[in-house]
C-alpha cells in the first residue's frame, strides 16, 4: 500500500483533526506557554486577516498561497483554530481553486457559510474538477462573489470557454474585483458580453497571437458598463489592430490607471479614457519595431500629451518628496518612489518609455518625453535619484531636455547618482553660469 500523498495528508488533517483543549492547552502551564498562545483574540483575528489577503492579479505559483497561510495559522493552537473557524468571511477570501482536491474545496466552501467569496483559478488544457467547481459557484453563488481571478494559459481548451462565459452571463451584484488573463482573441470576444455594474477594480491581461490581432475595443465597450471603477490595469502583449472608431469613456471614480503594451496600444487606450482629476498613471510603453517610420513620432507625441494630462494634476495634488529619473539608450523612466515600495492603498506615478531602435536620432526623440513634465511643480522633492547610462553622444545631444527637468527641482537636498556622477559633471560643464548656479542650489555635500 502506497503512503498517502501530501494533498491527502492535508485533507485528512483538515477534515478529521480537531485539537482537543485538554491535550493542547492543559499540556502547557501558564508560565511556559508560547507567546502566540497568549495573544488577545482581536490580535489573532488581525493576523488571520493579513494571511487571508489573496492576490487575484498575480500568479502565486512557487509562493505560499493565502489559503495555505490561513490553514497553517489555524493549526497554531486550539484558540487560534476556534477563531479561524468562527471567521467565515476570512475563509471566503482565500478560495484558491489551484490548491487542494475536491473534498477540501467542498469543506472550504462550507466554512464560508453565506459570506462574500473571492476566487482564483488557472484554466489549463484539460477539463479539471476545479474548473467544474468554479463554474458551479459562478452559477449557484454569483450573488456572493466579490472578487474573481481567472488565469487561462496558452493551451486552454476553447471549447470550454463558452461554458465559462455562459456562467458570466448572469448578474454579479457585488463583484468588485475582477482579474482576467487570457491568451486568445476568442476569449476576449466572449468577454465583451459580461456586465459587472459595481466593479471597482479591473485587471485585463491579453496575450494575443502575433498573427491574430485584437484591438482594445472590447475593453473600451466593457468599461462603459463600469461607472464606479476605481482601479484599472490593462496589459497587452502582441500586435493589436484598430477595427473601429471607439467612444471616450468617462470614469469619474478612477484613481489608479496602469497600462502596459506597445506605444500604439497604450496611446489608443489613453485616447478613450477620461479619468477623475488627479488619477495616477503607471505606464510601460515599448516600441518593438526595429525600423523607424513617421508613425512612431506620432505615437510618441500622443503618449507625451497623455503623460502631461495625467502628470500636471497628479503632482499638483500630491506632495512628492522623492523622485527617480533614468535615461538610457533604450528609453526613459520616471517614478515618484525610490526605492520602489508602494503600499497597496496608495497611488503612484511611474512612466517608462522604451524602444528597440537605439539609433541616435531616435534616442533623442525618446528623451523628449521628459518635456511632458514641463507644467509640473516639484518644489517638495528633496531626494532625487538620477541614473544616466554611459552614452556620451546622448548626453551631448539631449542634455537640454535633462537640464530643463533638473531646473524644476529647486529643493533637492539628497542626490543619488552613483556611477552617473561623471555624466552629471559633464552635464554641468555644458551649462552657462546662470543655469549652473540654479542647479541643486540646496544640495548638501559633506
What does this structure look like?
This protein is α/β, with parallel strands linked by helices and 446 residues long. Helix content is 37%, strand content 19%. It has 17 helices and 15 strands. Strands 1-2-3-4-5-6-8-10-13-12-11-14-15 form a 13-stranded mixed beta sheet. A two-stranded parallel sheet has the order 7-9. Helix 9 (158-168) links the parallel strand 3 and strand 4 (177-182). The termini are far apart. Mean pLDDT is 76; it is low at 1-28, 209-214 and 338-342.
Please state the overall shape, judged from the principal axes of the Cα atoms: globular
In total, the number of strands is 15
Strand order of the largest sheet: 1-2-3-4-5-6-8-10-13-12-11-14-15
Specify Rg, calculated over alpha carbons: 26 Å
Output the number of helix runs.
17
Overall residue-averaged pLDDT value:
76
Sheet with most strands:
13 strands, mixed
Helix content bin: 25-40%
Question: How large a portion of the residues is in β-strands, by DSSP E?
Answer: 15-25%
Provide the low-confidence segments as ranges.
Answer: 1-28, 209-214, 338-342
Features:
446 residues; 13-stranded mixed sheet; globular
Write the layout of secondary structure elements.
Layout: H1 6-16, H2 21-24, H3 41-51, H4 66-74, H5 78-85, H6 88-91, E1 95-96, H7 102-111, E2 117-123, H8 129-140, E3 145-152, H9 158-168, E4 177-182, H10 185-191, E5 201-207, H11 217-223, E6 231-237, E7 249-251, E8 256-262, H12 263-271, E9 273-275, E10 280-287, H13 294-317, E11 322-327, E12 331-335, E13 350-355, H14 360-367, E14 383-388, H15 392-406, E15 414-416, H16 421-429, H17 433-437
Parallel strand pairs: 1-2, 2-3, 3-4, 4-5, 5-6, 6-8, 7-9, 8-10, 10-13, 11-14, 14-15
Antiparallel strand pairs: 11-12, 12-13
